[in-house]
Amino acid sequence: MTLDDLPQGALPAEPVVPRVDRASPSVQKVTRAEELRLQLADEIVRGALAPGSPLDETDIARRFSVSRTPVREALRQLVASGLVEARAHRGAVVAQPSIERLTSMFEAMAELEALCAGLAAERMSAAERHGLEAIHEELRVLSYTGNPDRFHEVNERFHNAIYAGSQNGYIAEITLATRVRVQPFRRAQFRNLGRLAKSQAEHDRVVVAIMRGDKQGAAAAMRAHIELVRGEYEIYAVSV
Q1: Complete DSSP assignment for 116-183
Q2: What residues does the HTH gntR-type domain cover (predicted)?
Q3: DSSP string spanning 52-73?
Q4: Is 93 exposed, middle or buried (0-12, 13-18, 19+ CB in 10 A)?
Q5: Rounded distance, CA 2 to CA 216, Å?
Q6: Is this structure's pTM higher than 0.90?
Q7: Edge to edge, what strands does the sheet with 54-55 contain?
Q8: From residue 35, how far is each of 73, 86, 124, 150 by CA, in Å?
Q9: What letter would DSSP give residue 24?
């Protein structure tokens, strides 16, 4: 079954970006389409779905016991992220972003996250700082459990809290949109041996700088963190 409404030459839909709520660092409730996107993206990054593999809407809907509507939306988001290609009259197939493309995406992510962290160091309210510390502590506990999926979920909240703390909704939206594109690769690297503890230590440097109001220190710590995430993904990619 093809993506009928993606004719040749048409631009893929923009990824659905979760809104950052200034009152809460958590994202809105995950939709079924988002759950499917995460599952399929994870399988693509792990190599369970090889490049060139067809992604038939009907087969996927049957596999996950859902209608084709959330499947179609999930595939649209995967097309927008570059993990899937929509080919006219042939449907969707698994793509493989080039090393150059991934490098560009992570470079953009590092600079955007650094910008958010620096602004958060200057602008976060006392309540927001307290909330960030609470999430950081939750991640500290999870870093000992060896559950990468749960760590990833709370890690999303950690970064969302910093985006919201920048007090700049436009920058937060751009950062979230970029994160949607690199999210599968960020998530995969949590499976590396010892990565959860390392990520926690990197977060610690970011949090300390934010609590001190150190704009440059927070930005530098976050930039270094994202650059290390890219390196960890490259290690993971070689191992699968």
Answers
A1: HHHHHHHH--HHHHHHHHHHHHHHHHHTTTT-HHHHHHHHHHHHHHHHHHTT-HHHHHHHHHHHHHHH
A2: 30-97
A3: T-EE-HHHHHHHHT--HHHHHH
A4: middle
A5: 49
A6: no
A7: 54-55, 91-94, 84-87
A8: 11, 20, 31, 14
A9: B
**Reduced to 3 states, what is the DSSP secondary structure of residue 110?**
helix
What's the rounded Cα separation, in Å, for the pair 206 and 10?
Answer: 41
The pair of structure tokens assigned to 118 is 């620096």
Please give the Cα distance from 152 to 32 (Å, whole number): 18
Amino acid found at 13:
A
- What is the phi/psi pair of residue 55, to 5°? -120, 90
pLDDT tens track for 49-101: 877 889 999 999 999 999 999 999 999 989 987 889 888 777 899 887 778 88
| Distance separating alpha carbons of residues 213 and 83, to the nearest angstrom | 38
Residues comprising the chain, all counted:
240
Domains of the chain, with CATH numbers? Answer: 32-94 (1.10.10.10), 99-239 (1.20.120.530)
